[in-house]
């Protein structure tokens, strides 16, 4: 059972808890998680919760604990439908985006970065990953534009959006299959490109390996890569880079 | 020792060889190779010699045997510098192309296919493979044009050559690293594209694996793939396809 | 919501839409897909919809949009049973082939290629892939014959069908396990062979890797390879090649 | 033979070259390379020459051609000892760094970025890669500091350099073996980290695969990855990011 | 059907079984398993049952047989929920730990080792594996302390627990993703560290391969590795090592 | 619909079928399978049906067709529970072994080989594969003995069964995990050993890869290997070898 | 220094060695190798020396020791040119086969097996492996015939040798690239086939992996596999099998 | 140039160095290495130098620096012949073991651990790795016994040494190929076993992968694994464990 700080103090007063028990509860009330309350101060961002591999009870416990510590900007990634329902029942103020499997609440004030991030996405099937990148970057305080379904097999579609792409400060490129879009975009801009291989494809795609290797071997300079399907990581990296250009 | 047919017959007459010995020598004089004299009749092309893994003595024996059977169009692939010297010493009429490691003689009459084959090559480092494809297709009776150093990181270079590319009947695309060129070319033409991954690159290139997987996962239709660095195979396949368009 | 062009124009007239909104809807009414209306003009074929990784709502939206643009030859690959039911409920004129998981409508006039494509299939278990190749090639305007269950372990079965095989203009060979059929067929014909590794097998098959590697290493010339289980890609490539032989 | 523009014009005047020949020589005098003279204008940086897989004759030809076009900032990566000697004999003004295998000339004026790039290096054996990153970033106009031999097995060594690390605008982390340094650094800063896996190690290192996978799976946010041993790519990416912070 | 020894003897007396049948039943009553009754005498520990790949009937048969041989300390690993219900219905005295999927009964007297084992766990998602290690080591007679959620991305969390870590006699470190925690802990202690890669992660994690390779390549000395997710193996190894320090 | 030969002839008489239709039906009545009726004559054994990847309708069609051709010894491998029910409903004379997933009927007379085959199995979890080998070898006419649960971690269990093992004419060794049993057995006998890696294990087992590689690298001579989990293949190979020793 | 037994005994008599020292020298005079003198008695064959990874001094020591124990049939595999020269200088009675890298002496009387072994070899480049198999089987007492250069791309070459192939008692099939020959041969005979993948090929051959996987997935029954390039293992296995057919 | 502390102080006195320069030289005189002088105090052992990837100049600099700091027990691993010569020329007091490629000096006093470490080695070819383990453990203060050439193919050889093996406190097992020895030894003892896969083998050994996977999947408990060929790591781990048993 997880108690609010006030309740803990009350219990100390009532001799229901010893000083030592109370201190432990206040400092680290969860035995399965060590929450990094200082993270925002240290790195500028609140800790994000990686939802996969955690039970819904654990996630709810962590969120409750963060809310109790007055953290009101919380992003949870990789929350499946079933967990999302339990979470939203407990915290109706949270929002669930079923495409990207992100669950979040975003009530803190924040400064917005000056530069724009553009998320480019090869095909409709890559949208969940692209959207994870977009929501993450927005959550962290960035203006984001999404350019969708512009894969290299019909490269004129990409050129129709060249203006948008070349106005970006940072780019995130999500592509599965042969992942060629990252190299093509990288050759068209002089801004940093974060490439996200997706697991879209089959057979010799080997769950995203083909796009991952292609992106790591990009002949375009100014391209770096995050893990397969790691839209969150790309959005976070793009934000970290975008901060260098200053706030609005 | 390998004898010319005439010498064999002379020996039979002189009772130096039995009829049975002579027959065996005429039909299969080499104990390490079974030459397919009917291949041209059956498949339209002479057997090509795969030079890797054969000693220079074996290659010379096979060539001598083919010349004795009046085969005067011979292509040997993957001949290293040292073997080439031994071969050219024995058969000064042969030509060695040190970039593609091909050794050939090409004295037969042949009909030329109507359509043109265009070999597109991503970078200067991919030239040896591209050239193997080009020489193979020329040897088999095709007009071939080479478009070099048009990788996707500077895609305008490719568009400068669009005319040439779109006039091709069949295309061979050689690229290492992320192998994206095959998909981009595949999206620009309505003709068959043979993609050749090359082993150019390093690290997560894994000796051509990145380009191979990328090409197999091409989002462009009308693209098929041959083995890594298999310029010969691509040239041969392009020729086989080009034959469907008829002879000049 | 997706509107027909007429409805959009009506709304403009009624001032329910601005000119700008209408233009955007007409040109690209879907925010998750960039349909390539000019593809037929540019590459000779309508865009095919890759069904995997798209929701049924997205597929229905794309089909509706294409029909509104008077495209009446539509092929959707990798449609599972559940999606197919939703699609056929919306568009009863479409046909679903449950073996190959293809959903299509084929009402456009088209010219038929002169040469015949033969799809050769190693075992009964490879039929779904072979059928995807066959339906694709038929859809694109080719006469196709299927030769089934002629794997190399009983090679006489293949020789019984030699006539059919040698009359083909282009061949597609589908095989799982050791994928040897492609090499054997490649040695028997002088026409292009498209090899399709299938994921049929188990253990050291590694989901089709064994057949893929075997086919890429084929000792027969005139063989090129598409992705594992990519019957569609093989059918498309065979069609592209077959076009070179002219129309009936 | 490669001619200077003046010589070409002279030859035109002397009727030694036709107008068409001259035009071709001026625009693309090399048949093996398509030099991207506009790259600086388009992407802000001159094209860098990838030295591996090119013959020394090809490299010399490209450099000569660039100098003739008044490009005097040239960086060539992956130049082995033997090639470097031929290049320096031809162009004594070039400098060869034998540790990083970079060959360069750097005579253009350039603006320097405001922020500092810090290159962190796990062990002495990773120095060649770290130095490739450092020289690249310096060449492109950045102030770079190198922090060497601070691997995680003795993590206090890293903490001794915390000040330097936390003052960086962008970080490049080079590590082989288990590549853990990238995650640890990523957790200590709020700036973008470019991780470079190196091939240092043996056995289950699989030529850098262990560090590559580790870095792609980093539990720290704000980390992205380039190819194994790709110090150049990391230096370039760090520069591209650092540009966002403005010039001095 | 499995009989107790007494029942067997009774049946021999009643001539329902021959001497030979009885001997076989007593010595090896199960045709699907060869139980190693002497294991405790030989290696100091009872055989542990590997639950995966065995039917619940087989597990129940083995447990019944062991109980009949007066073995009352039994540990079964990898028991899923459904099997656990069948087992607990048959043996209500057994305990099921649903997090680690361990089912056990622990009624034998045992000596406790002097040194303490500390199990360190990178994230909440790694807890099932850590708990498997902890329960195994406790079952075998060790005092175990668990330090949870101290991954390297927030390395100060680890340092808060340094005292606990440095007081351990043996350490087990469970981590997924990049598995860096093992190297960091290994550099902070002079005691043996057993590293357990977990399959927590996604994409280029390849089901635990990234952490496995990272741990095998640890730059810290005094670290050895067990199979991915093998909490049991780590707990067992830690116990075997801990025995060297003597009993309480 | 599949007709018996008699029915076909009746229909010919009734003019319900043309001569040509009838011939086709008699010779190859199934469009999805090419049954090899001469296989027994040619190779000594009836064709075995590989059940995976075939629908139950296809399997039933093939069995019906074989029965119509008076083949009454039929073995179908890899039949899951659901397919088995459909098959047994149609052919109640067939037997289904749920452990090995084999479905068979065995009514032909056959000669039995003189030598005994011994199937050795490392653990209870490997039994399904071992049983597939055993049933296959019995079906083909061999006396088979099963030695179960004698893995190398308690090697005395193996030595208790040494007599049985050394009396075998051919051995089949099934083991998962590290697959060491094959080498140990191979060193104890002078008879051929067929090693079957099983997919039993987890983590770095990679679905049987560890045992497969181990067995291929066996330091014992006289060991050869079949595919992972291929109990059928091992049983068949053991039979083929055992035939050399003659019939009883 | 290695002493002959007689010298040892002499030294004991002279009190130059204690009884214990002498016993140790007689039983195991080499500190780097434990020679298995009883192997012939136990398994029917003398131990074969694996030459790779041993120094020439170690090999010479082992041979000297075996000769001293009156073993005069010795086979050493994988002896490179340089080691062979040192060995032959020491033991001029040994024979070195430079193609297969086997070094042997074969002076023991031996019985010859009744059945014939046929070694089938796909291409000239596979000959070294085929010859290793042939020499091994001959050394162990078998009549062996070699059928060379009959790869599946020209399958009529194989059919010309069908008589030889079908008269074999056991077959060894050596093939690189796609390794299809094993399946084709396996379908043509009813005798055991030992498949040897060779490392002949390039690119996606991955040093023999393609042929290895293909052979493990053979759709023909009665085929089992040894390690890549393991001609010795295949020859040994074929001999072990051939023994079952009895001696001449 | 590297100066001894005395020389530095002299230079300070002579005003040849500033105080700041001197301090830096004393504390970290090498710009390519951060020597961990406190390591012995912190972890009980001096830092070991990983020789691979360092130039001989770097190694000599580090050794000189350590000697200057009065460290006289230095172990350098992976020193090739050429580097060793340069090192021994500089430091004649060092010893080079050419089999294990270790270079060391061992002049510090040290306590010896009570328990014995036994290094077991499968074949003569695995000796270099086994010897690296042995020398490392001896260097760190352990009594070590080597049991060589007792691979599982002739398992009686292992049983002859059972006494030695069962008297060990800790065991190191080095084996290549199928790596089965670790499991067999693990089943025979109740002490911790450190398994070292070696790269001995060929083909599907994949440079030690087969032994590595086998050892990670060991069915014996109490076995953990270090990197391929990492004899040093195994020796170090064995020492760390052995310390728990106390000093002599």
From TrEMBL, chains A, B, C, D, E, F, G, H:
A Pfam short name: AIRC
Q: Where is the PurE domain?
A: 115-247
Per its UniProt record, what InterPro entries does this chain match? P2CMN_synthase_LarB, PurE_dom
Name the domain of life this protein comes from.
Answer: Bacteria
Output the SUPFAM superfamilies linked to this UniProt entry.
N5-CAIR mutase (phosphoribosylaminoimidazole carboxylase, PurE)
PANTHER family in the record, alphabetically?
PHOSPHORIBOSYLAMINOIMIDAZOLE CARBOXYLASE-RELATED, SLL1489 PROTEIN
Q: Which named protein is this?
A: Nickel pincer cofactor biosynthesis protein LarB
The taxonomic lineage of its organism, from the top, reads:
Bacteria, Bacillati, Bacillota, Erysipelotrichia, Erysipelotrichales
């Amino acid at each position: 059972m997880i108690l609010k700080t006030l309740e803990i103090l009350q219990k100390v007063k009532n001799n229901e808890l010893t000083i030592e028990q109370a201190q432990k509860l206040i400092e680290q009330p969860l035995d399965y998680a060590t929450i990094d309350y200082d993270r925002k101060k240290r790195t500028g961002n609140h800790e994000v919760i990686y939802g996969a591999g955690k039970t819904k009870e654990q996630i709810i416990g962590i969120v409750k604990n963060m809310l109790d510590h007055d953290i009101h900007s919380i992003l949870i990634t990789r929350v499946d439908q079933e967990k999302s329902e339990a979470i939203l029942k407990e915290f109706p103020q949270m929002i669930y985006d079923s495409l990207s499997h992100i669950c979040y609440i975003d009530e803190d004030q924040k400064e917005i970065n000056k530069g724009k991030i553009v998320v480019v996405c090869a095909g409709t099937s890559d949208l969940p990953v692209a959207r994870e990148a977009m929501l993450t970057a927005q959550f962290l305080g960035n203006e984001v534009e999404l350019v969708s379904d512009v894969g290299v097999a019909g490269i004129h579609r990409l050129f129709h959006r060249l203006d948008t792409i070349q106005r970006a400060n940072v780019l995130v490129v999500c592509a599965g299959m042969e992942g060629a879009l990252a190299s093509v975009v990288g050759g068209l801009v002089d801004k940093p490109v974060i490439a996200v291989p997706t697991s879209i494809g089959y057979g010799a795609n080997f769950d995203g390996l083909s796009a991952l290797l292609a992106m790591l071997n990009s002949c375009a300079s100014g391209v770096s890569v995050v893990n397969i399907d790691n839209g969150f990581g790309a959005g976070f990296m793009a934000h970290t880079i975008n901060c260098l250009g200053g706030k609005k």
